[in-house]
Structures are given as structure tokens and as C-alpha cells.
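Notes to self after the call with IL:
- keep both proteins in one doc
- input above output, always
- annotate only the second one for now

Protein 1:
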Amino acid sequence: MKKFLFVLPLCALAGCSTPPAQTFQPLNYSYLPPIVLKVSSLNVVNNYVPTPSQATLAGKNPAPPSSTLQGVLNRRLVPSGQPGTGTVTIQTASIDQVGGNLIGQMTVDVNLASADGQATGFTEASVSASQTAPDSDATQDDMRAALYGMTKRMMDAMNVQLQYQIQHNLPNWVSWTAAPGSAAPAASAAGGASTGVIQATPLTAPASTQTASTPATPANTNSAVPNYLPGAGPAALGQGQAQ
């Protein structure tokens, strides 16, 4: 009688299992207060058209830069209901691989106009980031993590940069900002109207629109910077005067 020897794979004998897939939290920044602008309507337009290589990386990214940025803009920028219109335009929201580096860029324009068209306002916020791309033999999860991390750093910087540029260049168009569910600030004693400034501790000018390739998370020891802002430590926002 012939005897058959069955050899089980070593992994089956050892009870091996596939590691769980890495998960990534949505980048919605819902904890940040809204920025309320003195217009009745506010339209977010995405003018960014990715190149083929940018589209490929966006498909691998757990938080594609373009849709992530558009979602945050729709939530954070809110019309007050006063006469006037506003358009917020995403000019670029990309990550590309150039040689052995990942290069990221985000640019947002804000255009506002009064109902009669006599008063207008404009500002632009732009941030960028770069880092070494994962090696060619890296896993798919390594690339996903690198793309997600770069998107998060740019979004952290954009939330600070956008609020600063609006506060600095469009102060008369700002109604107020507050945590979701809180009441609007009291009317001013002089004219019964909103004070027209962001109701938060004023930001100093961001040190640079170029984010660090190896981000740090410093403690916020600057009393002039609100704690709710991402990366709100002095190193992230800088100590210089507004330009």
C-alpha cells in the first residue's frame, strides 16, 4: 500500500494571518470654527485639472487633495446672508512625483463683491510641501501613507494660511467666526453692526507657505495663537509681524 505524505504550508501550521490594512482618518477639520463672510451666497469652484501622473497618485491617496480641500472649503467658509456674492476657487490641489520626490501644491483664491458691484475684495492662499518619495520596492501601503501624510500637512497649513489671508486682506468682509452651535457676537455699541473682524485671537503671519518635509508637532506656547488651529505652535505660525 502506498503511503501519501501531505505537507502543509509552514504559514498554515504556524497560524499566520494577513496584517490588517492600514486605515486613515478623514481630513474634514470639523472641529475648526467657520469663517463667516458678508455675502448672501458663496460658491466653491474647482478649476484644478490634474495631469495624468497627478491623477494616478490621487487615485492611490486615501485623502485626495482636491476633493479634501473642496470639502473643507465648503464647510469652513459660510455666507452671512448680507447682500453680495463670493466665489472661492481652487486653482491647484496636487501631489506629483518628480524624480525621487513628492511635490505638493495648493492654491485657493477668494473673490467677493457687494450687491451693486461697487465694492470688491480678493485674496489668495497658497501652500506647498515636498518630501522624498517611497522607494521603488516600497509597499502600496507605504505610498498611501506618504500621500496621506503630505495631504494632511498641506491641509493643516492651508487652514492657517487661508484664515490669515482673509483676516489680513479682507477684514471688512468678515462677519465673525465661532465654534459650531455658538451664538454670533453681540452688535457693536456704535452702530449695532458686527465688528467686521474674526472673533478669535489674531494670527501672526505664517513663517512660510512651504511646509517642512519632516513635520513636527510643537506644543503651543504662544498665547497669541488659538489652540484650536492645527499645528498652532510658534514654529508653525512664526513670530514675525503681519506683512
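Protein 2 (the one to annotate):
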Amino acid sequence: MIATVVLAAWTSAQSPLPVVRVEPSVVPDGSPVLVVVCAPGRIEGRFENQPLRFRGDTQASTAALDRPRQTALAAIPYAAKPGPREVVVRITHAGQTQIHHAPFTVVSGNYPTSIVVTPPRSKATLIAAGAEPHRKNAPPLPRAEPGSFSRALASNTKARLWRGRFLRPVITTVTEPYGTSRLNIRGRRKWRSTHLALDLDGQGGEPVLASNGGVVVAAGHYPGSGNTVIIDHGDRLLSLHFHNDRLHVKRGDRVKRGTAIADVGATGRVTGPHLHLEIRLNGHRVSPESLIDLIPPEK
């Protein structure tokens, strides 16, 4: 079901009544939502403390084929309290402003739990850049410039660089899903952590693809994440790719959906080859799989 709100105050002398909806109308915590507005004019919106940036959308609107369609993404934070929410949208057209409230419901993601036990003297392998077991002759990358990771996370391209559906960067099995609550045990030490990313298995060397269009804002070696690529997709949407082997892009490169940006590897603090994929939207780490499922294929 899709939540739809139409205000009758939009007079018949003007354009057809606006339609505002949130997709999906029932969403787990830790997920993105798509706010759809079918109306002419200037669109502004907000969800809690997140300003929404609406852009024209070429996808056909099933609710209002005769009206322009604009969309924006919003993030439901991980562990957000279940219950009703609403997005507030302001539409200004022909000298008149209307306020619309689009309701939706947040439910618990019911994310899995795991127990990770390692021997007292065992640590995750810290592999230097280029020192892959399967790529021993790969040239090492210099360590990234100090502060470049934080600057990349603060990137705020005020344009939408993505279009249409997002791809899974590597077609393989999931080794650890988003939202997993971990109980880590090493000897007598115990601690809890939450995995707010998607781990995708690999043997090493498989191509890692850009999930959508954007600009590379970081490409280099970092002590924990290893050989890393961060893509800014615009409108405060970032994708982060950790533990790669070779990198095929550099900072400042523009990429398209499906561009090969790296190879799966085991650099950084890891126990074996895999891709660690994070999605950050408006500063929140949300489920990559939810983003992939959110946007339908273009017709």
C-alpha cells in the first residue's frame, strides 16, 4: 500500500490536485524511503531533521500521469522507534503555497544477531595495500592523505548524479547482512557491535561496479578499510567500498552505473576477501539492499 495525501484546497481553476506519497508506506528502521510528489511548481520538504531535495523524475507516475513528478530520498535511522511518521512537503505554484503531510509507518527491522569467537591471540589480518595473497605482485598504493576520509564523508554535491535503479556492486552471496548485532568474544573479553553495512563474499579479483552514477571523492588506502573507493551520488548520498585490491578510479573521476571501480580484495583489517559496502544518506548508514530494492527499473 502507498500512502497518498491530496489537499482539496488546490482549486479546480489551477492544475490538477497534487499527490504526495511515501514509498514504501511501511518501512523497517535503517532503510531509505522515496518521497514522490506529483505536482507542478517549486517543491520543498523535510523529514524530521533532514531537508529533502526534490528533483525531476523521468519515471512514469501511476498516481498522476498528467502531472510533473519530483522525488527525494530520506533516511530512516537504524534503531528508529517503530510508529507513525510523516513527511512535510511545501508546494508553491501560481502564487499559492500548500502544505502537505504524507504519513507512513516505521517498523522494526528484526535484524539478525551473530556471535563472533576468536582465540585470545587471534586478530583480524591487517594486510597492506597491494599485498593480496592472490595478487602478490600488485603495486602498493600510498596511504591516503590524512583527513581525506572525513572530507569525503562531508561531500555534499548539490545535484543528483544518480538515475534509476541501483545495482549490487558484486553479484555474489551475502556473508553478513546490514544491521547484524554482533557479540564479539576474544578470550575473557566480550563486546557488542552493530554491522551497518553489507558484506559480499569474494575470492579476490572480481570486479566491483559502481551502483549508480556519481563522482569519486576518495580512492586510496586507509589503515582499517584498506583500499577504499567512496562515490558521491549527489544530494547527500554516498556509497563506500572497503577492502578492495586494485583500484580502477581516482579522486575526481565521474562514474556511471556499472563502471568497474575496483577489484574485490582483502586489504585493511579483514579475515578474508570480500566487499564491505556502506550506504550513507543524509549522514545515516542505511541498508544497501533496501536502496537497491527501492527504485524500480526504468521503463
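Annotation: The longest helix spans residues 288-294. Residues 3-107 form a domain with the Immunoglobulin-like fold (CATH 2.60.40.10).
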